[in-house]
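User: Please predict the structure of the protein below. I'd like the answer in structure-token form so I can feed it into my own downstream comparison script.

Assistant: Understood. Taking the following sequence of 279 residues as input:
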Amino acid sequence: MSWTRLGLIAGGGDLPVHVAEAARQERRLACVVTLDGFGDPAAYANAESVALGQLGKIFASLRRANCDAVCFAGIVPRPDFSKLKLDMKAMAVLPRVIAAAARGDDQLLRTVVALFEAEGLAVIGADEIAQSLVLRPGVLTRLHPDEAGLKDAQKALHIAGVIGAEDIGQGAVVCDGLVLAVEAQEGTDNMLLRVAGLPEAIRGTRERRRGVLAKRPKPGQERRIDLPVIGVSTIEGVAAAGLAGIIAPAGGALVLGRDAVAASADAHGVFVIGADDDG
């Protein structure tokens, strides 16, 4: 479906800022709606801030800007639905949303996509708008993995796929063949904090890095929302946990500032790989 005017629904983190800039450069950014408590309206020109439960107000903002497409970008943790202040539009769809949420995150995201498509909006992935962020095949960094690192990377990518198939999370950490952590609702940064607290006997250290973080989309997930993201904070978390590197499928993750991420990884002695085969 062709589209010309994009409305960006912005959560937390740096991703929506990158998406907004890419859409603005193409002169297709019509409006930005930041979600209260997550997105920062000060990061954008003329952004409107709307509470998460004000679905009718979000649709009205998109209509006023004559949007024919919408992109969701940024961090929005699963809410406590009982505490949301809902408008009439949100109240009408709440039973459907709660039922989807009970079936897992991917079903919840698919339901959100369907609600916006029902309003006549094309839902566009952040990777389509900000194509320069998409992880490319090969090694992003000066440092390349050794044989042990490659084995850990392959196993971590496999484990991430296993948990993703059950709609649990998108990340896993493996060191010397041992699974140290899998990501659930806490997110990548908090998972890496857990790894950093494990005994040094089973993980790497700053002086002797071992182990790999894998991030990947869940098999069969709705890829227009919630692609894995690698940023400088990811590099810092990996470095603090004593890990040797990061792997993600090429085309299946977004890198928030390729040069900045590569520079941070090089400074910490960490590798980053875009895998040709995501299996």
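That's the full token string. The CA atoms of residues 48 and 151 lie 47 Å apart.
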